[in-house]
C-alpha cells in the first residue's frame, strides 16, 4: 500500500494567511454553537443507543490507529500527519452534537506532536478547554528542536504534561536523522523532568536511542514500579552509584543496542518479562557484537519470555544457542538470515514464526520450518517494515499459505511484501525541505519571543487540520 501525505503547500506567505482565515472558519463551524442536533424518527434505534455504547462501536469500527511519519520536523514544518483513521474521525465529529461529543474523546486520546509549533498550539487548546486534558491517554513527542525554540520546548512540554493528568503512555521519539546529517542547526529536545509532576499513571514509556541515558534515569527510577511496557536504549555507561532498577510489572520490553552498549547486569531486573524486542541502531558497525549482547541479555531474562523479536545479525548459527535461554518461547520474529543453514531442531515449543524477507532468493517451505520447530502452527514472511510496529498483534492465518491477499485498509496490507533496497538510507536534503515552503507562520520566526502569540494563533490552524489526534474546539 502506498502511503502518501496530503499535497504539500506551494503558496507563499500571503496565500498561507488566506488559508489561515479559511481554516479558522472551518474549525469554528465544528463548535457547539454551529452543530445542530439531528432530528431522527422516534423508531430510529440509533437514537436510543447511549453515548458510551456508541463510543465503543466507533472504536471497533475504526481501523487500527497507527501513524505514518515522514521525518519532516524542520522548518517549514509539515502540513499534515497521515493516519489510517484520521479522515474517519474528522467525519464522525462533523455529523451532529452528539457524535461530536463522542468523537472528541478518541480524537484527544492519542496525540502525536510532529513539530515544535504543534506543541504550543496543543498547550493553548488544553488551557482554553481544561476538560480536554483528561481525555489524553497517549502523548508522543516526535520533533527535533530548531534553533531558537529550546525555551518553547522546555516550558510548553512541562505545561502539556501537567495538563494531562490521566496520561498512561508517553513516547519521546524524535523521528529525524542525526543533526550532523542535516543542513540546519537543530538539537535533540531535552527529556522532561517528569519526576516534578504527578504522572504515576504512566504505564508505557517509549524513549528513542538518541536520548542520553543519564537524562532518563530519574524517570525510570520514578516509574519503575508502575511501568508495564518500556522501550529504551541499552546504555553505554551506567555511571557511578547506579541504583538497581526493578521493574516488577514490565511485561513488554523493546531494547535498542549500539556497538558500545553495556549489558544491564545487576542494574536492571525484569522478573515478569513476557515480550522482548531486540534491535540495533543503524549506526552499529559490527552486527556480531549484537548477537553476542543478545545472548548475554537472554541468558539473564529469557526464561519467562513468550514472545521474542530479533534484529539483524551476522551469525545465523547462533539462533539455536540464543533460543536455549528461552524455554517457554511461543512466538518468534527474526530476520531472514537468522535461519540456520542446517534444518535441525532449534526449539520445541515455538508456535508462531514471522520471518522478515530481505531478498528474492528461494525460501524454504513450512515443512522444513517444522523440522526446526516441531510445535510450529503458523509461519509467515513479512516485510522488514514490520520491525517498525512492535505493538501490532500477530498475523493469524493458514500455516501453509505463505502468499495470500491481505485485508484492504488494515495495517496487514502495509506489511505485505514489497521490494527491499538494502542500500537505501533516508536522508533529509535541502531540496526536500524547500518543496514544503512555508506552512506555519511560526517557521519564519527564529526566536522564543514570539512563542506565546504566533504559536497560539497562526500555528494553531495547521494543528487543527494536520494532527491525527487533535482538532481545536471554539465554542
From TrEMBL:
<feature type="region of interest" description="Disordered">
    <location>
        <begin position="429"/>
        <end position="475"/>
    </location>
</feature>
<feature type="compositionally biased region" description="Acidic residues">
    <location>
        <begin position="432"/>
        <end position="447"/>
    </location>
</feature>
<protein>
    <submittedName>
        <fullName>F-box domain-containing protein</fullName>
    </submittedName>
</protein>
<dbReference type="InterPro" id="IPR032675">
    <property type="entry name" value="LRR_dom_sf"/>
</dbReference>
Amino acid at each position: 500500500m502506498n502511503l502518501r501525505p496530503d499535497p504539500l503547500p506551494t503558496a507563499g506567505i500571503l496565500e498561507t494567511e488566506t488559508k489561515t482565515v479559511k481554516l479558522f472558519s472551518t474549525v469554528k463551524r465544528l463548535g457547539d454553537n454551529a452543530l445542530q442536533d439531528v432530528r431522527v424518527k422516534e423508531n430510529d434505534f440509533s437514537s436510543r443507543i447511549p453515548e458510551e455504547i456508541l463510543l465503543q462501536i466507533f472504536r471497533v469500527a475504526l481501523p487500527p490507529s497507527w501513524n505514518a511519519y515522514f521525518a519532516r520536523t524542520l522548518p517549514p514544518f509539515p502540513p499534515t500527519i497521515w493516519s489510517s483513521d484520521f479522515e474517519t474521525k474528522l467525519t464522525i465529529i462533523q455529523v451532529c452534537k452528539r457524535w461530536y461529543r463522542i468523537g472528541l474523546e478518541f480524537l484527544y486520546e492519542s496525540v502525536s506532536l510532529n513539530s515544535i509549533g504543534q506543541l504550543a498550539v496543543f498547550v493553548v487548546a488544553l488551557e482554553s478547554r481544561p476538560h480536554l486534558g483528561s481525555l489524553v491517554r497517549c502523548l508522543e513527542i516526535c520533533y527535533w528542536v530548531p534553533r531558537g525554540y529550546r525555551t518553547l520546548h522546555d516550558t510548553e512540554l512541562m505545561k502539556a504534561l501537567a495538563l494531562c493528568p490521566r496520561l498512561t503512555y508517553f513516547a519521546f521519539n524524535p523521528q529525524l536523522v542525526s543533526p550532523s546529517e542535516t543542513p540546519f542547526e537543530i538539537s535533540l529536545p531535552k527529556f522532561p523532568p517528569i519526576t516534578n509532576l504527578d504522572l504515576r499513571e504512566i504505564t508505557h514509556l517509549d524513549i528513542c536511542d538518541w536520548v542520553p541515558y543519564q537524562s532518563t534515569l530519574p524517570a525510570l527510577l520514578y516509574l519503575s514500579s508502575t511501568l508495564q511496557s518500556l522501550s529504551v536504549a541499552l546504555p553505554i555507561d551506567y555511571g557511578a552509584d547506579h541504583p538497581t532498577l526493578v521493574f516488577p510489572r514490565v511485561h513488554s520490553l523493546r531494547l535498542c543496542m549500539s556497538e558500545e552498549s553495556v549489558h544491564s547486569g545487576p542494574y536492571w531486573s525484569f522478573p515478569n518479562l513476557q515480550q522482548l524486542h531486540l534491535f540495533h541502531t543503524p549506526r552499529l558497525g559490527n552486527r556480531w557484537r549484537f548477537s553476542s549482547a543478545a545472548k548475554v541479555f537472554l541468558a539473564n531474562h529469557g526464561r519467562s519470555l513468550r514472545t521474542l523479536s530479533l534484529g539483524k545479525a551476522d551469525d545465523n548459527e547462533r539462533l539455536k544457542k540464543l533460543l536455549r535461554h528461552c524455554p517457554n518461547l511461543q512466538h518468534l520474529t527474526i530476520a531472514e538470515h537468522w535461519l540456520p543453514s542446517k534444518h535441525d531442531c532449534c526449539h520445541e515449543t515455538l508456535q508462531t514464526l514471522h520471518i522478515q524477507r530481505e531478498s528474492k532468493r528461494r525460501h524454504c517451505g513450512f515443512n522444513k520450518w517444522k523440522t526446526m520447530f516441531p510445535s510450529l502452527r503458523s509461519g509467515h514472511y513479512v516485510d522488514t517494515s514490520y520491525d517498525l510496529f512492535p505493538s501490532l498483534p500477530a498475523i493469524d492465518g493458514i500455516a501453509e499459505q505463505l502468499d495470500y491477499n491481505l485485508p484492504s485498509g488494515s495495517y496487514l496490507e502495509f506489511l505485505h511484501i514489497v521490494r527491499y533496497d538494502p542500500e537505501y538510507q533516508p536522508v533529509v536534503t535541502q531540496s526536500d525541505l524547500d518543496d514544503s515552503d512555508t506552512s506555519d507562520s511560526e517557521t519564519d520566526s527564529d526566536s522564543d519571543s514570539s512563542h506565546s502569540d504566533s504559536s497560539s494563533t497562526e500555528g494553531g490552524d495547521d494543528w487543527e487540520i494536520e494532527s491525527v489526534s487533535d482538532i481545536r474546539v471554539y465554542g
